[in-house]
Amino acid sequence: MRRLTDDEMAEIWRHMDDPSWVASDYAREIGVDQSLINHHRRRMREQGWSSRIYWVPCSVCGELAIQRSPGIKTAAHPACRIARTRRNLKAKQDRRKERGITSTEDVRRWREQNPDRNREFRRKDLERVKAKFKTLPDEQRNEIIDKLHAYDSEQQAATQKDANNHGSLWTADEDAIVIERINDPASDVARQLGRTMWSVRGRRVTLRKRGLIDD
Ligand SMILES: [Zn+2]
Predict the structure, then answer these.
(1) Distance, CA 89 to ligand 1 centroid (Å)?
(2) Boundaries of domain holding 196
(3) Which of 13, 79, 132, 134 is 20 to 30 Å from the Cα of 126, by its Cα?
(4) CA of 193 to the centre of ligand 1 (A)
């Protein structure tokens, strides 16, 4: 369950004595479980509410900005965030240029030559996406889940149609390909092996359990 933001806590605090305010509506609006709101209301009733905030220089304009943590080096005002994103993207491009990466082909080569760092980057990306997903309202989450399901059935049907190796025992050569291509979509690996998408996913689970795939 995610933490509430200072703004959300303030909103709850503002309505502590408002009989027309419905906690479950607000929970739905901000995409959290109602029990989380009830928990904070109870605590506020018992102990009041104060929030610990820090004034930290904005990394874009240099003026002070409110932050939850004192050590943050990339603080930015809401209005400065676009500039911050642009700056970060520019910095990323500059780092790439320094390493001589100017095309997607270069990126592919870099990934091949730096498998450990690439895996680390991918893991962090995935964590970011997961954290973001958790904060979305139910409606948006359901939409994404529906799209993933649609993608799955589409790819499963497509790979099933061409699967000429379906149901046969997995060979060591095939396992080697599954392990080597762990970062590729299962449907692509399935096409190479003449198997279905779900059988490749299943094999990944098996190989992971045996300790042959490590993320
Ligand atoms: Zn600023």
Answers:
(1) 18
(2) 149-209
(3) 79
(4) 53
Distances 38 to 11, 20, 26 between C-alpha atoms, Å: 13, 15, 11
Q: Could you give the CA distance from residue 160 to residue 163 in angstroms, rounded to a whole number?
A: 5
Give the Å distance between the CA of 95 and the centre of ligand 1. Answer: 24
Ligand 1 centre to CA of 73 (Å) is 13
Summarised one tens digit per residue, pLDDT across range 40-79 is 999 888 878 776 778 888 989 999 888 877 777 788 888 8
Residue 11 lies in a domain: yes
Same domain, 37 and 61: no
78 C-alpha to center of ligand 1: Å?
8
Domain annotation covers residue 110: no
Span from the CA of 84 to the centroid of ligand 1 (angstroms): 9
Matching residue, tokens 């959300």: 8
Q: What was the pLDDT predicted at 32?
A: 92
